[in-house]
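Supplementary Text 2. Reproducibility record for the structural model of the 132-residue chain.

All settings were left at their defaults, and a single model was retained for analysis rather than an ensemble. We include the record here because the model underlies the residue-level annotations in Supplementary Table 4.
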Amino acid sequence: MASRFTELVVDCHDPERLATFWCEVLDFTVIDRSEGKVEIASWEPTVEDVRARQMPPTVVLVQVPEGKALKNRLHLDVSPVDRSTADEVARLRGLGATRVDVGQGDGRSWVVMADPEGNEFCVLRTLAPVDS
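Retained model, structure tokens:
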């Protein structure tokens, strides 16, 4: 059997603040917290579930002393499921995200944004049902 992708770890200054932001973005909940760490997910993983099949990873926000210095080498992509991409970008801005330029150029089908601590992520095309 192969290993499983179980957690995505994000270094940050304020895990509680970013957990609140990402829970709102992804409709996740906090599943664990300890000193300097908050874990969020769409499900509560069990060892049996993880052994049986690949499940969506949790996101673990870990407090570190240093700040973000460069463009992320790894980032999240999100796709709105119940609204347009433009409406989702507006909602995310209301939650504290900002639009950023990482050299992506104009005319792209996605929007590059940053969370409240500057971690880049992309908002992709909408997956909302098309009205007939």
